[in-house]
Amino acid sequence: MLELFNITLFTPFYFPNGKSSAKDKYFIPICKLENNFICAYLPTSKDRFIPSKYKGFYGCNNDNETSSSFYSFEPGQVVTDKGFFFERETFVYLSNVNSLSISMMKDIYKIENVEYEIKGKISKEIIKDLVNCALNSSFVKNKIKNQIKNYKI
Protein backbone atom coordinates (compact mmCIF):
# COMPACT_ATOMS: atom_id res chain seq x y z
CA MET A 1 0.00 0.00 0.00
CA LEU A 2 2.92 2.35 0.59
CA GLU A 3 4.69 1.80 -2.72
CA LEU A 4 5.57 5.16 -4.23
CA PHE A 5 3.02 6.53 -6.70
CA ASN A 6 0.42 3.85 -6.01
CA ILE A 7 -3.06 5.27 -5.54
CA THR A 8 -4.65 3.66 -2.50
CA LEU A 9 -8.17 4.20 -1.21
CA PHE A 10 -8.43 3.94 2.58
CA THR A 11 -11.87 3.06 3.93
CA PRO A 12 -11.72 5.07 6.11
CA PHE A 13 -8.56 7.15 6.42
CA TYR A 14 -7.72 8.29 9.95
CA PHE A 15 -6.17 11.75 9.86
CA PRO A 16 -3.08 11.95 12.08
CA ASN A 17 -3.98 15.40 13.41
CA GLY A 18 -6.96 13.91 15.24
CA LYS A 19 -9.04 16.98 14.35
CA SER A 20 -10.64 15.69 11.18
CA SER A 21 -13.10 12.83 11.31
CA ALA A 22 -12.20 9.60 9.56
CA LYS A 23 -13.48 9.30 5.99
CA ASP A 24 -12.77 7.41 2.81
CA LYS A 25 -9.71 9.02 1.24
CA TYR A 26 -7.31 8.49 -1.63
CA PHE A 27 -3.60 8.46 -0.84
CA ILE A 28 -0.58 8.89 -3.15
CA PRO A 29 2.87 8.27 -1.58
CA ILE A 30 5.49 10.44 -3.28
CA CYS A 31 8.68 9.88 -1.25
CA LYS A 32 10.15 8.28 1.86
CA LEU A 33 12.04 10.21 4.51
CA GLU A 34 14.68 8.42 6.56
CA ASN A 35 12.88 5.09 5.98
CA ASN A 36 10.47 5.96 8.80
CA PHE A 37 8.03 8.35 7.20
CA ILE A 38 6.12 8.39 3.97
CA CYS A 39 5.21 11.69 2.33
CA ALA A 40 1.96 11.66 0.49
CA TYR A 41 -0.69 13.69 -1.21
CA LEU A 42 -4.31 13.25 -0.24
CA PRO A 43 -6.19 14.10 -3.43
CA THR A 44 -9.50 15.93 -3.12
CA SER A 45 -12.42 16.86 -5.33
CA LYS A 46 -12.73 20.17 -3.42
CA ASP A 47 -11.59 23.07 -5.60
CA ARG A 48 -11.57 25.76 -2.90
CA PHE A 49 -8.07 26.91 -3.79
CA ILE A 50 -8.28 26.80 -7.58
CA PRO A 51 -8.26 30.21 -9.30
CA SER A 52 -11.17 30.55 -11.73
CA LYS A 53 -8.81 30.89 -14.70
CA TYR A 54 -7.71 27.27 -14.13
CA LYS A 55 -11.18 25.70 -14.01
CA GLY A 56 -11.28 22.85 -16.53
CA PHE A 57 -7.50 22.85 -17.06
CA TYR A 58 -5.86 19.51 -16.23
CA GLY A 59 -2.30 18.73 -15.29
CA CYS A 60 0.26 20.90 -13.50
CA ASN A 61 -0.49 24.44 -12.44
CA ASN A 62 2.18 26.49 -10.67
CA ASP A 63 1.22 30.14 -10.53
CA ASN A 64 3.12 32.42 -8.16
CA GLU A 65 0.90 35.34 -9.11
CA THR A 66 -2.16 33.64 -7.60
CA SER A 67 -0.14 31.64 -5.04
CA SER A 68 -1.59 28.42 -6.41
CA SER A 69 0.25 25.19 -6.98
CA PHE A 70 -1.69 22.05 -7.81
CA TYR A 71 -2.05 19.12 -10.14
CA SER A 72 -5.53 18.32 -11.43
CA PHE A 73 -6.82 15.01 -12.73
CA GLU A 74 -9.49 14.99 -15.41
CA PRO A 75 -12.59 12.99 -14.54
CA GLY A 76 -12.72 9.69 -16.42
CA GLN A 77 -9.05 9.81 -17.49
CA VAL A 78 -7.38 6.46 -16.74
CA VAL A 79 -4.45 7.23 -14.45
CA THR A 80 -3.15 3.84 -13.23
CA ASP A 81 -1.92 0.56 -14.65
CA LYS A 82 -5.10 -1.10 -13.30
CA GLY A 83 -7.42 1.17 -15.29
CA PHE A 84 -8.41 3.36 -12.34
CA PHE A 85 -9.80 6.85 -12.91
CA PHE A 86 -11.28 9.52 -10.68
CA GLU A 87 -15.00 9.98 -11.27
CA ARG A 88 -14.84 13.70 -10.48
CA GLU A 89 -12.28 16.40 -11.15
CA THR A 90 -9.63 15.73 -8.52
CA PHE A 91 -6.81 17.92 -7.22
CA VAL A 92 -3.47 17.44 -5.52
CA TYR A 93 -2.51 20.62 -3.68
CA LEU A 94 1.29 20.65 -3.80
CA SER A 95 1.60 22.57 -0.54
CA ASN A 96 -0.36 19.86 1.30
CA VAL A 97 2.15 17.07 1.67
CA ASN A 98 1.45 14.85 4.65
CA SER A 99 4.28 13.02 6.42
CA LEU A 100 3.06 9.85 8.06
CA SER A 101 4.80 7.15 10.07
CA ILE A 102 5.22 3.99 8.01
CA SER A 103 4.92 1.75 11.09
CA MET A 104 1.76 3.57 12.19
CA MET A 105 0.22 3.11 8.73
CA LYS A 106 1.03 -0.61 8.76
CA ASP A 107 -0.40 -0.97 12.28
CA ILE A 108 -3.69 0.74 11.39
CA TYR A 109 -4.28 -0.67 7.91
CA LYS A 110 -3.74 -4.42 7.83
CA ILE A 111 -6.41 -5.97 5.61
CA GLU A 112 -6.19 -5.23 1.90
CA ASN A 113 -9.55 -4.89 0.11
CA VAL A 114 -11.25 -4.29 3.48
CA GLU A 115 -9.39 -1.38 5.12
CA TYR A 116 -7.70 -0.23 1.94
CA GLU A 117 -7.72 -0.92 -1.78
CA ILE A 118 -4.78 -0.41 -4.11
CA LYS A 119 -6.05 1.26 -7.28
CA GLY A 120 -2.76 0.83 -9.14
CA LYS A 121 0.43 2.65 -9.95
CA ILE A 122 0.12 6.00 -11.65
CA SER A 123 1.22 5.93 -15.29
CA LYS A 124 4.82 6.93 -16.04
CA GLU A 125 3.64 10.01 -17.95
CA ILE A 126 1.59 11.28 -15.01
CA ILE A 127 4.38 10.44 -12.51
CA LYS A 128 6.78 12.48 -14.62
CA ASP A 129 4.31 15.39 -14.79
CA LEU A 130 3.54 15.22 -11.06
CA VAL A 131 7.23 15.01 -10.12
CA ASN A 132 8.15 17.95 -12.36
CA CYS A 133 5.18 19.89 -11.03
CA ALA A 134 6.36 19.37 -7.43
CA LEU A 135 9.99 20.16 -8.27
CA ASN A 136 8.97 23.44 -9.93
CA SER A 137 6.60 24.48 -7.16
CA SER A 138 7.72 27.11 -4.69
CA PHE A 139 5.24 25.60 -2.21
CA VAL A 140 6.92 22.19 -1.82
CA LYS A 141 9.58 22.03 0.90
CA ASN A 142 13.18 21.47 -0.28
CA LYS A 143 13.48 18.38 1.95
CA ILE A 144 10.58 16.81 0.04
CA LYS A 145 11.93 17.97 -3.34
CA ASN A 146 15.29 16.33 -2.62
CA GLN A 147 13.60 13.01 -1.88
CA ILE A 148 11.38 13.26 -4.95
CA LYS A 149 14.49 13.87 -7.11
CA ASN A 150 15.79 10.45 -6.00
CA TYR A 151 12.75 8.66 -7.47
CA LYS A 152 13.68 6.82 -10.67
CA ILE A 153 10.98 7.21 -13.33
Query: By helix and strand content, what is the structural category?
Result: alpha+beta
Report Rg. Answer: 15 Å
Which segments are poorly predicted (pLDDT under 50) over 5 or more consecutive residues? none
Physical arrangement of strands within the biggest beta sheet: 7-3-2-1-8
Q: Could you give the order of the helices and strands?
A: EEEEEEEHEHH
End-to-end separation in angstroms reads 19 Å
Give a quick account of the main beta sheet: strands, pairing sense, barrel closure.
5 strands, antiparallel
In round numbers, the mean pLDDT is: 88
Strand content: 25-35%
Helix content: 10-25%
How many alpha or pi helices? 3
Strand tally, please? 8
How many domains? The number is: 1
* CA-based shape: globular
Describe this structure in words.
There is one protein chain. The chain is an alpha+beta fold. The chain has one domain. Helices cover 18% and strands 33% of the residues. The chain has three helices and eight strands, in the order βββββββαβαα. It has helices spanning 102-108, 124-135, 142-149; strands at 6-13, 23-33, 37-41, 59-63, 68-73, 90-93, 97-101, 116-121. The strands form two sheets. Strands 7-3-2-1-8 form a five-stranded antiparallel β-sheet. The protein has a three-stranded antiparallel β-sheet with strand order 4-5-6, covered by helices on one side. Strand 4 and strand 5 form a beta hairpin. It is globular, with a radius of gyration of 15 Å. The model has no long low-confidence stretch (mean pLDDT 88).
